[in-house]
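Input record (one chain):
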Amino acid sequence: MTTFQAEPVPGEPPPADSVSPRDSTLDAPTSVSRLNDTIRGFIERWGSVWVEGEITSWNVRGGNVFGRIKDLVTDSTISIRIWSSTRQRLPADLKVGDHVITCVKADYYPRSGDFTFAVSAMRHVGLGDQLERLERLRAQLKAEGLFDSARKKPLPFLPHLIGLITGERSDAEKDVHRNAELRWPQVRFRTQHAAVQGDRCVPETIAALKALDADPDVDVIVIARGGGDPQTLLGFSDERLLRAVAAASTPVVSAIGHENDHPLLDDVADLRASTPTDAAKRVVPDVSEQRALVAHLRSRLTGRLTQRVTHDIAQLEQLRSRPVLRAPDTLIDARAQQLWLQVSRGRDLIDRRIETGARRAAELRATLRALSPASTLARGYAIAHLGDGVIVRDAAQAPNGTTVVVTVAEGSFAARSQGPVAETGDAVSN
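The corresponding structure, as predicted from the sequence alone:
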């Protein structure tokens, strides 16, 4: 591991509040806080350095990483801290035992006196430029949306035919078949063999993917490999393969490597399985679990139906126990008596109204008859009126020779006036 020592920056004075050995004595000791601040001031002036070593501890807490790196020759170690924001820029497959090159900057905490190194960059030794290219490709594909969960296609609940791309006579193929058949004995596979590393890996995998994707009977495609070191897994981070997987219309499951392996295919595929065995478990449901689920649901349904029927029977019995339902005629008889009384009262009221109306009509008829001109005419009076219908009210209206119509009780007749007569009743004649 590369080592370094603290050296003051030329031309830069120490901090004003720093303390040196000559500044503290037995009679005038300095404080712990001032000593820690002095140490921190010197450490902050060191800057960043690149070191080479092996990861011996890798603990993730709250998205941050706290670990240790050991020298490859001696047992010397340093404590490292990686903030979550920095971790996003580092290779995702870093783990204990990896040989790495790391850019670190010393950091000292005055409050606790702890000394650690903050990591700003880390890469595998031996991969170098390839890892950098992969990280750039990762960022590019992520920006294009190929990693977005919104574009991920859901897997069918029970695929009728599973397309499998794996190495010929590989353990991955056996694991997928064995675990899938244990979970669902009737499962069927259509397998396309392809090289899982080397120069043939990418073109053969793409050809197998296109063949299975074009088959309408294939419901899901699994790309499986039994792990390996980062160098052998580079084919599953090839841009050509990644774009072919993204363009496939059939859901694709990535089952490359073990839990710590993470090629870019895992991010582009519709589902990432940590191992081929895990892929079989994620793609095919467990028949025993489904039978248990059906039995549980049937039991719940039976219980709910029994509970509902029992509840409804109890309510019906409660309703039937009420007096009105035990003897429904009682309610009808009581209402019939009330109805009979109301009808009788109605009839009496109508009869009284009719009788009162008849009396009132007779009274009005008698009054009308008393006031009617016909009654007057019946007593011997007559009404004389001129030809134009004007009633003669004054003798002057009918001078001598005027023809008048005289209406009596029984009809009318014409008469000729001889003029006014004397008050004694004698007619005046010309």
